[in-house]
Amino acid sequence: MTFLEKSIVKKEILEMVRTSRLLIWTVVCMIIGIVSPLTAYYLPDIISAFGATENIAISFGKITYQDSVEQYIKNFGQIGTIVLILMMMGSVAGEKVDGSVQFLLVRPVGTISILVAKFVSLLVLLVTGLLGSMLTMGFYTWYLFPGFPGFRFIYANLFLFLYFFAIGIITIAISASVRKPILAGIGTLGVWLLASIMGAIRSIGPFSFAKLPEQVIQTIEGFPFEWQPIVGTAILLCLFILAGTMLFNRWEPND
Amino acid sequence: MDTQTIVLLLPLIILELVLKIICLRDWLHRERFKGVPKSAWLLIFLFINLFGPVVYLLYGRKTDGDY
Amino acid sequence: MAIIEVSNLTKRYGSVQALDGVTLSVEEGRVFGFLGPNGAGKTTLIRILTGLISATSGTFRINGQVDDGSKGSFGYLAQQPSYYSWMTGRELLDLSGSLYGMEKNEKGRRIREMLHLCGIEEAADRRIGGYSGGMRQRLGIAQAILHSPKVVFLDEPVSALDPVGRKEVLSLIAILRERTTIFMSSHILDDVQRTCDEVAIINKGSIRIQEKTKTLLRLHAQPIVHMEFESKTAAHQCLIQIMEMGLHATVSDFTVSISSETYAQESSRILNLIGNGGWKLEKLEHQEATLEDVFMHHIQEAGDDLS
To answer: Could you tell me if A86 and A175 are in contact, meaning their C-beta atoms sit under 8 angstroms apart?
Structure first.
């Protein structure tokens, strides 16, 4: 990282703090880390409370930490993804709309440096949030369920991190390509849905980045992870970064 | 509800309250809002859990710098 | 030496020709006024020169450099400047200094100097989001000149301000003229005339004329001396006598008007004549020539409707 990029990264991180993005994301992550094990633990009680009135007998297997992890992945895959897209969709497009992006563009700063700084600040955001969720999720699951493999859980979060890194980069890249934040949001949602649908196709499915969260479960269970989603994600991100940089270069203010 | 449940739920309630208090403090000092009127934003972040405060903090606040 | 050289620059938006072969050059150390009605292409040219948009054809050099190479040698203030509202003024200047690769101590010293020069010391540690229009504009000038650039582009620096703010910013620009070359666009004639050494008039995407302000005024507009008398009769009698001397003058009510040049040459004879006639002179007024005549002339030459 050059000196130049360092000062833009500083700006990005300061922005995340002042606009309360860092706080929002961390709190959301911590909430997910609490809700997931609690839902898994109390689900039989909740369902039987409803089921009892309808006179249906429901039987459950023993609830384990695996159910907790499954909830964690599911909640992050949905709520986490949407919150992250909401947070990042304005990252470049928002600055185009209010005109502040011109401050950097008239200075000896390449568009690629601007994007790199956004990616680095995304890393900081994700690490902070995931540390928060690992803390709450780790504690609750360890407390409520026996035999929780804490160390493998920490390691498994790397896949969740990679998944959100992909979502974040795609959002920023689309945000750099379009004129309005809402378009970046819709675009990323589209890519996300496509990747999820693609995941179901046998031939190319394993390469979808939507497969990354599943690796968390696999890793916690001690199985080796699959390489396909990692390679697929890497290729996809390169394409998005390339296209995003090119389209960002071609953007012109037109008011 | 037993004591254990209440203690376990407490951090969740605190985190949700933290978000709502941040929203409320901002909402009280702000005059200009995006999208919907001031009173509607209050209802949104008070009664929609998690997503209410998130959407308010990200997109409900009109920055003073806007023309 | 020409610090800005623009050669045959065009910009086309679909079927709209925003710039149509603009050629001009600006000497180092000048305050250059870029004058034209709204929509003439002023902002388009400045955005091309600052690298925000690309030209359809043509070339330009700033400080002898092209494209991105020129970015270190200019400062820019947009027509409606927008800065990160969550930052403080001081933080914005600090970021700007870092981006130009300024050394830490030098940066700190320059920031203090700029805050003082632009009169925003008190607001330096407040969020930009709460700045007034005038403060934002002064911060805009501070961020444009922080790194001591060779050229400063100011796009309509005062048009959005109230009269007090305008006066403040114009006097700030007058201070800057000793430090750097200024390229300033405006549609307000009076500001350009008072501030700029040299003027180019643009209309419908092409340059109508480029000339030193003084030359332009001498060639195309006339300064005038007005002599106001106590009565209409005195004014008329004086006019007749002046005409008899073979000089050109006009009269309206109590006032006889004569070109400053003529007056300068013949002042003793004219004053003698007034003394001999026994007419009482109430007021002798010297009126500067204005760019307005020149501007109107060049805008209307193109057959435009100035509504």
So the answer is: no
User: Residue B67 above 60 pLDDT?
Assistant: no
Closest CA to A229 of A255, A249, A252, A199: A199
**C65–chain A Cβ distance below 8 A for any pair:** no
How is chain A split into domains, by residue range?
A: 3-34+77-250
A4 touches chain C (CB under 8 A): yes
Alpha-helical (H) ranges within chain C are: 42-49, 89-99, 104-117, 133-145, 163-176, 189-195, 213-220, 232-244, 260-277, 291-301
Residue C283: pLDDT above 80? yes
Q: What is the predicted ipTM? A: 0.88
What is the model's pTM?
Answer: 0.85
pLDDT, one tens digit per residue, over A45-62 is: 877 777 655 555 556 678
The Cα of C92 is separated from the nearest Cα of chain B by a number of Å equal to 14
Please indicate whether, in this complex, the C-beta atoms of B50 and A23 are within 8 angstroms of each other: no
Q: Is C103 an 8 Å CB contact of chain A?
A: no
In a domain, B47, yes or no: yes
Taken in order A156, A160, A163, A164, is the CA torsion positive or negative? negative
Tens digits of per-residue pLDDT, B8-39?
Answer: 999 999 999 999 999 999 898 888 888 888 89
Question: CB–CB of C99 and A4 under 8 A?
Answer: yes
Q: What's the rounded Cα separation, in Å, for the pair A189 and A168?
A: 11
The token pair at A151 is 């160390």
Share the mean pLDDT of chain A.
90
Residues A127 and A26: their CA atoms lie apart, in Å, by 9
Of all residues in chain A, the one with the smallest CA distance to B51 is: A83
User: What's the total number of domains in chain B?
Assistant: 1
Q: Which of C72, C80, C92 sits opposite A99 (nearest CB)?
A: C80
Q: What is the average per-residue pLDDT within A223-233?
A: 88
What is the residue range of B51's domain? 3-60
